[in-house]
Known about the structure:
Number of strands: 26
Distance between the termini: 121 Å
Radius of gyration: 42 Å
Number of helices: 5
CATH class of the largest domain: Mainly Beta
Number of domains: 4
Largest sheet: 8 strands, mixed
Helix content: 10-25%
CATH topology of the largest domain: L,D-transpeptidase catalytic domain-like
CATH superfamily of the largest domain: L,D-transpeptidase catalytic domain-like
Amino acid sequence: xxxxxxxxxxxxxTALLALLSALLLSPTPSSAYAxxxxxxxxxxxxxxxxxxxxTIPPPxxxxxxxxxxxxxxxxxxERGPGTTAYRMTHIRLPDPLPELPLIxxxxxxxxxxxxxxxxxxxTLPLSIYRHPIEAAMGMAPVRILYSGDQWxxxxxxxxxxxxxxxxxxxxxxxxxxxxxxxSPSRFQGVYLNQQxxxxxxxxxxxxxxxxxPQGPANTAVPLYYRYTLVTIYAEEFRATDELxxxxxxxQWVEQEFISKVTVDPRPAExxxxxxxxxxxxxxxxxxxxxxDRMVYATLISSxxxxxxxxxxxxxxxxxxxxAGKMSNPDTQDxxxxxxxxxxVPWTMYFNGPTALHTAYWHDAFGFTRSHGCVNLxxxxxxWLFNWTTPYLPPDQDALLATGTWIWVHNTSPFGE
Length: 416
């Protein structure tokens, strides 16, 4: 009886194991519980590939054509050597080089360019006497010049006891040693018989041209001296504040050595065929027009920067004086800022006290110099005085009337 019982137990255990395995391996009914499925993690998006700008500079002499500029941004700067080289290869100078359409003005080199003899007061204070004998007698002066820049005109010379005296006005004499005779500028602009094809300029400081912008000097051509007139055939920026002009084959000059004149459109207020004058404060140049055609151009000296800078705007000449005194309206003799100028010739007022007029006391045309007015070399002032309106009769010294338009502007090639 013992053995069969043992066999039945083993058989039952085997059956139970088989049933359990079947339950575990059978499909789970749809109504039965199942753990939520876990979705696999999303793959990260592919990293975009950024074009890498070459860091190796292009070979020497590499020219930055427009197609290469985007690939070589570090070396192909918009105003860099490579792009300059590309643009220079496309410059075509006319052959032969044209001449400016000028009527050559040839005044007598010995002529008096001003109607007075002027002198600078080199010693201050300066006592002025009614006659040299009154100074010798210890009498009081009629007036005293105290300070600042003082210029007088000389009417006559007197020798008194071996000493030279100058008469500067009726009943006013000063020792000659206290005055320095002026040498007014003999510079003069140009008269044009037709519209210039290219911009032109005066060299304002002596300069040796370069073979390329920022390049070595071109020693095959002579030095250009101050007041030399040149034509501008092309321009090239090398930086936001550096500009070069081509004035001849392989002759590049930086902008700061140039005072340029360009033909500009007539202001809308100026009628066709009407006279007008353009004053370019940045270039320190002046151009006179009849309608749309430029007829005359020259250099100027306008007001220094600051409180004496010349105002921009469109004005008209309102008074002309054949000659008159000028002084500082904001101060008086005794102040270092005082100035007094006798008999300033050919004066044309256009903006309140601001005027075009002769400057017999300097030769710095092409650079700012004045207290606000527009200084002209004597020959230029005389030409413009006779050309502008209102016309002053020969027997009249002053005229108050509306005349020629004056457009004053300060336009930099470098922007604001």
